[in-house]
């Protein structure tokens, strides 16, 4: 038998190693009707804690400018959501039921481990980061979610890096199971001093595409006019809507993130909304360009949950043959469990701890804090 895979748990400690945060995952899925809860455990050194409290915060922030431009008290960062949880001492409110992972971690880590729990609102945007340019410095623009645990006497007290932990998590969406209708568009151009027209029709083979999958574009041109179609240009564009105080739109070649706008969502949408379109353009001689756009969805497929096969609890038993003997027959106990099966596969020993390292984009410069302790 090979070694069975354990439950992976991410951990990250403060610089002074007095505070450690444990999370079961770093990507939390938005299922459109609900969002995966953020459940974790924080381990504290009681000798270091003394009369202080342990707080855990979840922040959704939108950075829309370079960090080196934060001057004169003007910050290019807006906090979209902030939630605070007092992990120790626990609040007098009725405690929330522990998740299975929290229960296993508390049994393994001991009495100085304390759970925390957050619920991410559905109207918050998903995590997205704009790829920084070669000359950009500091943190990249985008929407990120950060968990921060620290020790302090109160929330108003200024915390220090040495006794705090920062973990960047992601709110993601996967492709829906039911795809939408097939995108198609058509247009007709009538030219001056001519009673004949130019008709352009374009369509895609489907609406939903996965990353790395080819796009099949069907183009049909009916030219009854006297004009000549010189070229047919087909391009794929990514549109990033920057939603803050006003909406600004930037277009660039296709990137790798997708944000859907849910029906019935809050009208006050903040963050970066990414959409994709295929543009088909006809270059017509002395008649201007004729074009149509086909919107489509680019997402990652939903990962399949691995369900382990059930293991037998006991070994099968078979009757033991007996040889005739002149001696008086006595019942000799027979050990039928000659093969010992591992029945403790769901215990706390199969937890595998992995250091929480922040995912970095290509070309992005890291800050010293993350380089040293990620």
Automatic annotation (TrEMBL):
<dbReference type="InterPro" id="IPR014756">
    <property type="entry name" value="Ig_E-set"/>
</dbReference>
<dbReference type="GO" id="GO:0007165">
    <property type="term" value="P:signal transduction"/>
</dbReference>
<dbReference type="GO" id="GO:0002031">
    <property type="term" value="P:G protein-coupled receptor internalization"/>
</dbReference>
<dbReference type="InterPro" id="IPR011021">
    <property type="entry name" value="Arrestin-like_N"/>
</dbReference>
<dbReference type="Pfam" id="PF02752">
    <property type="entry name" value="Arrestin_C"/>
</dbReference>
<dbReference type="InterPro" id="IPR014753">
    <property type="entry name" value="Arrestin_N"/>
</dbReference>
<dbReference type="Pfam" id="PF00339">
    <property type="entry name" value="Arrestin_N"/>
</dbReference>
<comment type="similarity">
    <text>Belongs to the arrestin family.</text>
</comment>
<dbReference type="GO" id="GO:0070374">
    <property type="term" value="P:positive regulation of ERK1 and ERK2 cascade"/>
</dbReference>
<feature type="domain" description="Arrestin C-terminal-like">
    <location>
        <begin position="194"/>
        <end position="303"/>
    </location>
</feature>
<dbReference type="InterPro" id="IPR014752">
    <property type="entry name" value="Arrestin-like_C"/>
</dbReference>
<dbReference type="InterPro" id="IPR011022">
    <property type="entry name" value="Arrestin_C-like"/>
</dbReference>
<dbReference type="GO" id="GO:0031701">
    <property type="term" value="F:angiotensin receptor binding"/>
</dbReference>
<keyword id="KW-0963">Cytoplasm</keyword>
<dbReference type="GO" id="GO:0005737">
    <property type="term" value="C:cytoplasm"/>
</dbReference>
<dbReference type="InterPro" id="IPR000698">
    <property type="entry name" value="Arrestin"/>
</dbReference>
<protein>
    <recommendedName>
        <fullName>Beta-arrestin-2</fullName>
    </recommendedName>
</protein>
<dbReference type="InterPro" id="IPR017864">
    <property type="entry name" value="Arrestin_CS"/>
</dbReference>
